[in-house]
Amino acid sequence: MEYEVVIGLEVHTELATKTKIFCSCSTQFGGGANTHICPGCAGMPGTLPVVNKKVIEFGIAAALVTNSKINQYTTFDKKNYFYPDLACSYQITQLFHPICVDGSVEIETSQGKKTIGLKQIHMEEDAGKLKHDPFTDSSLVDYNRSSMPLLEIVSKPDFRSAEEVVAYLEKLRSMLKAIGVSDCKMQEGSMRADINLSVRPLGSTKLGVRAEMKNMNSLKSITRAIEYETARHIDLIESGNAHKLKQETRRWDDEKGKTYAMRSKENAQDYRYFPNPDLPPIVISDEWIERVRESLPELPEAKFARYTGELGLSEGDSRLLTGSKVLSDLCDHCIEAGIAPQTAANWITGEVMNLAKNDGKPADDLVLRKESLAKLIGLVEKNVINRNTAKKVLAEVYHKDVDPEEYVKDNGLAMVSDKGAIEQMVKDVLAANEKVVADYKSGKTQARGFLFGQIMKQAKGKADTKLINELLNEQLG
């Protein structure tokens, strides 16, 4: 029998606000345990929540880019359950009137394009974090993450493979980063996914028993977990043990490559949802929605079409540039500063990416002033410095954040462009290397590279390479 895997995702993305969703505590990542808390997010009795307006605006923005219907009357609710890192034994979230519903995200895989439906997007607060100490056999609670603002993006069960899940997460991540809603750093937990998976016979419309794998924050691990869990379900069904499949939450062990049962999976009624009496309903006006819409930047898909069409960049370069907000921002600024699109793309996909790679950083963790990069490329275009010198200056700009123009001036790196001076250098090198010149004239073309290198050495790497080539060709006949 052939089987079909059915997957739905609940994606939690931490919002890029400076303060938490219901208090003014910092959302900065890191910091000592329990240093970013107040009586409110620590769950002290008598404290009252106040909604962060920016969270609402981020919810509206997410709705607009995911083709969702915005609920202009939206409310907060209490979701009741006990867990040690949930200070109040309830979570403030949305059930009855989430900020938006009925959205869609288009993905593309090896099987072509597909539209993934969204059930809803809702706003909620995060819980704290338990830190387990194996030496003392105890657990401590850090409430820094408590009340961090989240958007939970709930898909319909439209996925049929791990490839589709990864394509969806990458698309979602690129959109949310582009509009500044979240940095989506999965390694820091600011984007994580709960995977709801079941298996059924191919052609059946009845859903199988669902297992949930929570808080997955690595695309590689997500792929492995889906493949393992799919095989586990099929094995139990085919061995006559389908009754052992339970609706439960399972933990993925990345080292062992297996999932393990944690607890039975609750249904909505188990959480005893009810409207939060401490937070009034929020009414979102048409004018507010339009203000957010007008503030949205160009989305990656539109940018890709512009890069390949209007700017004439290759699909490969465009894909790399638009896959990262940092890289596309660098490229756009350089073009606005008068740099030719292909020249800007070459520098960014080549030298800039090499620096990031050598530093062990992904593109989106790259820290490089776009003004400095545009200045540096401009110095090359104006023949102030040659490309080899520019590569060295770029390293200083990247590592030490120096101003490229001042650095070139202070270190005497400006190019020697005096034709008479370079011509004399060429003559001196040819005179000192008569045998190499003879080798070149007898057909050993690689000898020319040696002569060029000697001239550059004499010029201390600062000569106009174009002029050197012209004069070298002239002198060699």
Automatic annotation (TrEMBL):
<dbReference type="InterPro" id="IPR023168">
    <property type="entry name" value="GatB_Yqey_C_2"/>
</dbReference>
<comment type="similarity">
    <text>Belongs to the GatB/GatE family. GatB subfamily.</text>
</comment>
<dbReference type="Pfam" id="PF02637">
    <property type="entry name" value="GatB_Yqey"/>
</dbReference>
<dbReference type="InterPro" id="IPR003789">
    <property type="entry name" value="Asn/Gln_tRNA_amidoTrase-B-like"/>
</dbReference>
<dbReference type="InterPro" id="IPR014746">
    <property type="entry name" value="Gln_synth/guanido_kin_cat_dom"/>
</dbReference>
<dbReference type="InterPro" id="IPR017959">
    <property type="entry name" value="Asn/Gln-tRNA_amidoTrfase_suB/E"/>
</dbReference>
<dbReference type="InterPro" id="IPR042114">
    <property type="entry name" value="GatB_C_1"/>
</dbReference>
<feature type="domain" description="Asn/Gln amidotransferase">
    <location>
        <begin position="329"/>
        <end position="476"/>
    </location>
</feature>
<keyword id="KW-0648">Protein biosynthesis</keyword>
<dbReference type="InterPro" id="IPR004413">
    <property type="entry name" value="GatB"/>
</dbReference>
<protein>
    <recommendedName>
        <fullName>Aspartyl/glutamyl-tRNA(Asn/Gln) amidotransferase subunit B</fullName>
        <ecNumber>6.3.5.-</ecNumber>
    </recommendedName>
</protein>
<keyword id="KW-0436">Ligase</keyword>
<dbReference type="InterPro" id="IPR017958">
    <property type="entry name" value="Gln-tRNA_amidoTrfase_suB_CS"/>
</dbReference>
<dbReference type="Pfam" id="PF02934">
    <property type="entry name" value="GatB_N"/>
</dbReference>
<comment type="function">
    <text>Allows the formation of correctly charged Asn-tRNA(Asn) or Gln-tRNA(Gln) through the transamidation of misacylated Asp-tRNA(Asn) or Glu-tRNA(Gln) in organisms which lack either or both of asparaginyl-tRNA or glutaminyl-tRNA synthetases. The reaction takes place in the presence of glutamine and ATP through an activated phospho-Asp-tRNA(Asn) or phospho-Glu-tRNA(Gln).</text>
</comment>
<comment type="subunit">
    <text>Heterotrimer of A, B and C subunits.</text>
</comment>
<keyword id="KW-0067">ATP-binding</keyword>
<dbReference type="InterPro" id="IPR018027">
    <property type="entry name" value="Asn/Gln_amidotransferase"/>
</dbReference>
<dbReference type="InterPro" id="IPR006075">
    <property type="entry name" value="Asn/Gln-tRNA_Trfase_suB/E_cat"/>
</dbReference>
<keyword id="KW-0547">Nucleotide-binding</keyword>
